[in-house]
């Protein structure tokens, strides 16, 4: 109990207790990490990291161990929900300006945590050694060919051009030892930094007392009680999910039989969709690198901290964000269908250069569109630079979500759109 108390400051602003100031997302991420550690440790009692035994050991866990199936399903649902919650937690921090000023370093630590969680999901994906896992990881590994020094990195993980026993054992060690150890270190620093910043970011304009200082309340029991409720409800939800639904397990991996379509895990589907429209060097390397650089640079580029603790700085910014969502929801599918039509056109007229559909042309076109949208919105809604940046972020995040959904739901054999025809 005293350990839990020490994680928090003694008092926090009353405003921070409101659900809408954090939506308890960071706390939920922690609960999910804890559930993952617990269920993962239990699975270690039966799992065998060898290609001949991995699949059967998972089957054995599901069928012969008491609660084996439930433990595996809890691990599966917690991992997937964690990726979703992390994404939402990042959005909350971004929109409330929680990454600025003294919280800068914690944002960077958060990005390290994000990378570790994604790496953990990716390495864990292969462990059941079923068809879905084997081919999803094969696709992702092939993407390394378009990353500088990626082929060299790939040879570290694979043998004879394919996924092998070496890959499985390296992934197993990373997933069960290296990544969790690093994650514990980063998470401890993350919480220490939240504590040092005297809790989460809150609005300077609301929750003020008569002396013009924020009204403070004791963490125990006010915050601890709320955290306990969230932890219990989330654990119950995961347990019910694990009881009702079973974590997927396909046929055993077969290196000679590729499923069609072979899709990457859902959290990489947005990038797999991009891969269909841009040259792989853009989709796999340039675009993710630019996104990551922006995420790292953001706290240092944006000097003002006007929106601390508030999601939108003005009603104009709110309307601009809603408009950006609508534009992005319309424009993204239109561009995807347009590119699909160009690809078909090229099949009929092979003389047309490839750069029209997957080369520099679509990339430059998209960059121009983003710039037109950014400056157009800024002018139309009379936004400040910060508000315009936020509106562009809304536009791009919506586009990425739509791309992810298109890849997951609308792509079939040969990664063609279901209704487009062969
Ligand atoms: C498993 C992963 C993570 C856990 C368990 C976690 C947990 C938390 C918790 C409990 C808080 C305080 C309250 C709250 O927002 O609920 C917090 C704040 C914060 N988190 Fe995370 N977090 C994680 C990942 C991330 C990531 C990926 C980022 C960003 C890239 C991030 C950036 C931040 C920042 C900057 C704050 C301070 C914001 C503020 O004071 O309002 N975190 N985190």
Give a brief rundown of this model.
This protein is mainly alpha-helical and 422 residues long. It has a domain at 2-255: Cytochrome Bc1 Complex, Chain C. The chain is 68% helix and 1% strand.
Task: Describe the model.
The protein has 422 residues and is mainly α. It has a domain at 2-255: Cytochrome Bc1 Complex, Chain C (Up-down Bundle). The chain is built from 16 helices and 2 strands. The protein has a two-stranded antiparallel ribbon. Protoporphyrin IX containing FE (HEM) binds at residues 22, 24-27, 29-30, 33, 86, 89-90, 93, 96, 98-99, 103, 106-107, 110-111, 113-114, 117, 187, 190, 194, 197, 200-201.
Main β sheet profile: 2 strands, antiparallel
**What fraction, in percent, of the residue positions are helical?**
55-70%
Taking strands numbered 1, 2, ... along the chain, how are they ordered across the largest sheet? 1-2
Beta-strand fraction estimate: under 5%
| Global geometry | globular
What attributes characterize this protein structure?
mainly alpha, two-stranded antiparallel ribbon, binds protoporphyrin IX containing FE, 422 residues, Cytochrome Bc1 Complex, Chain C
Blueprint of the fold:
Blueprint: H1 2-7, E1 11-13, H2 19-22, H3 25-43, H4 54-64, H5 68-95, H6 104-126, H7 131-143, H8 150-157, H9 165-196, E2 216-218, H10 219-244, H11 269-277, H12 280-301, H13 315-348, H14 355-358, H15 360-380, H16 385-410
Antiparallel strand pairs: 1-2
Bound molecules: protoporphyrin IX containing FE (HEM).
